[in-house]
Specification:
By secondary structure, the chain is an alpha+beta fold. The protein has two helices and four strands; from the N terminus they run αβαβββ. The longest helix is centred in the middle third of the chain and has 19 residues.
């Protein structure tokens, strides 16, 4: 029990790392970010969660000559 209590108190100052990979034009991703993350986690969790948003998802990269093109599922 003492070991558990020590662990809990030693972790209080460390933030939880939360990485979200999302599609910027995806309606489901937008709904999740606006109605779940913003409403609950972002509003109440900024003190203990370290957010990392990566705007990438269901996309395809192609290279033609020296030019790269990215095609996303929900937009250009």
């Amino acid at each position: 029990l003492d070991a558990c209590l020590y662990y809990n108190t030693s972790q209080l100052d460390k933030k939880i790392k939360l990485t979200l990979l999302y599609e910027t034009l995806c309606p489901d991703c937008q709904e999740f970010i606006l109605n779940t993350l913003q409403r609950y986690v972002w509003k109440y969790g900024q003190d203990f969660v370290d957010f990392n948003f990566i705007p990438y998802g269901n996309a395809r990269r192609t290279q033609l000559n020296n030019t790269w093109t990215i095609q996303c599922q929900h937009g250009p």
